[in-house]
Fold these 3 entries.
Entry 1:
Amino acid sequence: MNLVSIRLITADIDRLVEFYERVTIATALRPTPDFAEITTAAGTLAIGSERTVALFTPGSARPAANHSAIIEFLVDDVDAEYARLTAIVTDFVNEPTTMPWGNRSLLFRDPDGNLVNFFTPVTAAAIAKFTR
């Protein structure tokens, strides 16, 4: 089994897709007006409009209601990303901070309030974990 994507449901797909295109410096694939994907080497961030929820079960997902998940991106230099993101992000949770598990992390919120973590491993153990 492989985890291949995380999907966000949003009431404003154009706004959220534009935000993630800017922060990831990637172009989203938009096969329909209600669905987009930003693909990285490790997986895909999918973004669906709230209209897509009815295809599953109406009411099974709600836009802008996440308070438990953090979307994480491994970056080369979290401090450089922080400097770049100050022109894009309006809601930083913290500045780059070295965590006890060895990653230097930057937390911010996307326009729907979802937490996003850009991180760079900085200790030997953390670097080894991500350079296999």
Entry 2:
Amino acid sequence: MRRTRTNRYARGVRTAAAAAVGVLALATLTAGCKVEKVGAAENTAPPATASSHPASSPPADDAKPGGGTASPSATPSRTPSVRPSPEPRTLMSVGDRSKRVRELQARLRQIGHFDRSPTGYYGTTTVASVQSFQGKRGLARTGRTDTVTWERLLAMTRKPTAKELDPPAATPAAAKPDARCLTGRVLCISKNSRTLSWMIDGRVVSSMDVRFGSQYTPTREGTFSVYWKSRHHVSTLYDSPMPYAMFFSGGQAVHYSSDFAARGYSGASHGCVNVRDEGKIASLFDQVRNGDKVVIYW
């Protein structure tokens, strides 16, 4: 009987102990902890940290757009070399005489850069006109017609008509020229109309504007003859250029004047007969011969 009670007591103690263990296990699980075996910490690797592993990602500077990375073997792109533009080629310049020069002058006249009839001769007046056009368009004011200047002019103008290229020669303002001009080869110069007419046997071959000397250095009037021609003459008295000079009386001559071309009638000569159209007087110079008559009259 006594042994039976002892056994019941023992079973009760074991049952109570088991219940206590169950309660402890339940509390541990509820707290979220992990029950580890004794000595487990010695066999478990420490948690990985930033310093425990070498960096495997490239620096941010090597990152490619879109999240990729630059390849170590990639080479930087090269900027293609740019060849300098060739210099514009000169098409027309001083001294040229051609149909193309005449077209250049006609086109310049269409847009107000050439104020006279085309002559086909590239002289100082044409140089000044081309410089004016170039300056207005922001081009180098060389006075030469190069490929850039010519293309710009073509784009701004139309093809000249035959009348624009070769307008009829102007006739003298006087109804009838002086009777001394009606026979032979004559430079017929009127102070009244301020014109020079190149006449052969009473027919006007060409006509051009002229100006004369001032009241202090007047141009002589009368009948003379050409006694000397000098294409590139320079005055020994005034040290001024007198191209295409045709002397008819002492130091007085018919010649081209850049001052007349630039200033018009606001100036005067020192007694010579000035012509402002270089193309026309260049052509006249080639036609006139020593001995041809010169008539200057009112």
Entry 3:
Amino acid sequence: MSPVIEEHARARLITDGPLTRPVPVELRYDPADERRTVHIGLPDGTDWAFGRDLLERGLRAPIERGAVRVWPCGRTQLIVELHSTDEVEVFQFEVRTLIRFLARTRAQAPAAATPSDGAAEKRPSRTTATAAATRPERGAQPARG
């Protein structure tokens, strides 16, 4: 069994204000997970989980899956936009950090089918330290009581 790959990184939180601010994030990947899921842990305890291929494809061209959008920003930056029912968080990553992390995940990953090979595709999800919640697909409305 291969060890879980973890990498501490810095991202810039993009806000509608004039300044961005750096935030520490944790990138995590478990090679034993057949779904090839990448986790981005935020300082508030929120954990976003989605298929590794979403980050890989987002390095080359804009891609969206459910509540996660990823696109390159110039040659050295990558934008990750995370949608929840109450907010949108936009992070800017250094491409080299993500390339290094993804290279480590590929080196440790067992041979398995990719989503294009017919394996089940991992839907993006968000969890917090207090509760787990599956992300709604784009256009889905939150339940009202």
